[in-house]
Design a protein that fits this description.
The chain is about 65% helix and about 10% strand. It has 16 helices and 9 strands.
Amino acid sequence: MNADTEPGEVTLRDPQGASAVGRLAELATELGADDIARTAHSLACRVLEGRFYVACVGQFKRGKSTVLNALVGHSVLPAGVLPVTAAPTIIRYGQCLAARVRFHNAEWTEIPVSAVGEFVSEEWNPGNARGVDGLEIFVPSALLAQGMCLVDTPGLGSVHVRNSAATRAFVPQIDAAIVVIGADPPLSGEELDLVDVVAAKVRELFFVLNKADRVNESDRAEATQFARKILGARLGRPIPAILEVSALERLEGRGMARDWPQLVAALEGLAAHSGRSLVQKAAERGLRRAADQLLAVIAEERDALQRPLHDSEQRIAALRIKLEDAERAMRELGYSFTAEQQRLSEMFAVQRTNFLKQAAAGAHEQLAKRLREVRHRRSGPRYRRDVMHAAQEVTQVELMPWLERETECAEHEFEKTARRFAAQANDFLQRFAESGIAGVNDLPDEMETEQGLRGRSQFRFHSIERVAAPASPFRYVADIVLGVLGVRGPVVRDAHAFLDHLLEVNSARVQNDVDERIRQSRGELESEIKSLLGRGMATAERALERARVAYAAGRAAIEAALVRLDALNQRLLRYRG
């Protein structure tokens, strides 16, 4: 490609657009916009390889990960009843199973496929706290051989708000989408909003009603009819057939095929007939997006060169004052947060006391019922083990629902306090955006105000096996004697005392677990906000330093820099089409 070739001509000569995107990446590097350069380079690679993205989108618990596992014929994605995708995950063709992960501002690192869950599941990477920027899984699937890449997206409706935000942020990269809905409920308002956003970007949509095996035929038909009506009205266009499938049945090789063959055939047809055009459209979208970002960078640099040095110094001095105000407000909020942590700890202590009072009577009643069902054996020690294990099981049944309620309560209370911290950070970001300082595009527009607990629960039920077994040789012999005599009373009394002990110990562990998650989440949130404020001031300081260097070099150097920026600006305008 010649250096003076028009971008439009490049697109015609290079239908997939990889050369044009690559040149834009070079321009970004020349302008020092490393993030834009990295994104453009990634796009150039996927365009050159002819890869296009088919994202699987839908609400939390729709079974999206299972659908994708079934499509490629391998259980490479974690799936379960908890939110399992903290960041978008790309499944692409490979000659053998493999996986790699990339963290923010880092290179790809190979990982075992079995370890994928450690990076994308909410259990091991809550809220993407590990900073996963991308994760790719390579699968030898014929469906992917022509360039199709399947994308697993974080679920909407998850208790983890950042998951939904990650899905929406990925929408501009989507070339087609599989929209997974359910029969109960068939559609939520948030799902309709997402479909609306996706449909505005892509034309190729495939609608799938998953878990069709869990509802009867009439309910399934009613849900499908309702979904088609609502989706058609929302999108203003006819909706293709909604395919009824059970991905789990397909993956496990049981049940009926339902509409699964139609789904596979539709995707194969997309790859065969539309794959090339989808790749080209992805290149065109990426060109426009990157060009717009670089034009903003040029505008900022031009402003920094044209603005009087004294003006820049005044702006940054004002920002420094604002930063000091923000840091002071953060310290004050920190004191408030410490008091709030203490309040929450006391609140959970009261709730634990109430739980013990309410749960004890029912637990002892359930234990008494279970003990009547325990088969009496002549061997006393075996009988003791049976009744003690029954006490453990009863305690666990009582305790786990309370753990879920306590976690939900902690999420709600933490969000209320965290929202105040995020609002402070957003106020600084807004002031920074209004300052006109070069480099403002390097910072996020705003920080997510809905902040849930980030720390992963460490609670594990403590069974206290040593208490369940005879504590001494004397007790062992006594149990044998009691067994021979058919006397159960002492062992039954020990079982009920053991149940009280289990409730006491494990409820305390639940409270400590919640306290620790709040403490850890508070620390991570404060660290993130401080880092954000620091990045803002560092950006401002760099802008001032550039201005000082330019003025020290003299007017001629400034004019030369402006001419260079104008030339780059004209070249970028052509990429916008």
